[in-house]
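Ligand: flavin-adenine dinucleotide. Inputs:
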Amino acid sequence: MKIIVCIKQVPNTTEIKIDPVTNTLKRDGVPSIINPDDKSAIDVAIQLKEKHGAEVTVICMGPPQAENALREALAMGADNAYLLTDRAFAGSDTLATSTIVAAAIKKLGADVVLCGRQAIDGDTAQVGPQIAEHLGIPQITYAAAIDYNEERNSLIVKRQFEDRYQTLEVSGQCLVTVLSTLCKPRYMNVWDIVDQDSKEVGKITFADMDLDAKNIGLAGSPTKVQSTATKQFDKTIETLELDPEAAAKAIIDALSKRHLI
Ligand SMILES: Cc1cc2nc3c(=O)[nH]c(=O)nc-3n(C[C@H](O)[C@H](O)[C@H](O)COP(=O)(O)OP(=O)(O)OC[C@H]3O[C@@H](n4cnc5c(N)ncnc54)[C@H](O)[C@@H]3O)c2cc1C
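Predicted complex:
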């Protein structure tokens, strides 16, 4: 089984501060991490490899420094890693991003494609399903568990809904988007960190893929960000001195006025 895991390098949001003047995120000096959903996807791919045998390839579209994310995935136990990087990819929205990632998957070949459900910075949850559409393969989203049935050569995927689970069986090529809660990603050990140093991270550029320049980068991006703003919270505090019964009523009234209960 050939598994490709798509990972995105994202800023560690727990480290991000807001610029009080511009109201934008301060990203300078903020460490980058593997998107949490993607890290679970890497781990489950390695679990499938350990249980059933598989080749795990990790790919990431991004600038040269995204190689660090791929090196971390190699240290976790991935077999191969490729960075999709080219000036022509800059400014890509989700449609252009998924076009590029899908072209790389076509080039490398995969039975199973794993993505995170959502990236913690872009937050659209569009890239996984779009890749499946570009490849013309079935997709299963919101995976809370994944296993492989060797006899039937099929993937068993448990999907999470708000109030229930759904279990699906799929044979043939497919794409699954994974929740970060699916598993607790393993830590790298010292030997794996040292070992990954001897592995090569391949580079895939525009010239290596079957891509039309008008479908990628800014030219191939139908969506444009008009503006971004930080949400302002109303911190007005009202102090009421009431007996317990009146206080309970005041709380209920305040919550129902805001449609919270
Ligand atoms: C108009 C516009 C311009 C933009 N310009 C830029 C820009 O110049 N530079 C820039 O860095 N970003 C840019 N972005 C953001 C970029 O398009 C998104 O970050 C990217 O498409 C992924 O979307 P997302 O973060 O919502 O991912 P989601 O759809 O939430 O991600 C879901 C999953 O898809 C996979 N995935 C997502 N992105 C990648 C990736 N890059 N490589 C591999 N797998 C991936 C991961 O498995 C991830 O968990 C731009 C966005 C817009 C709308």
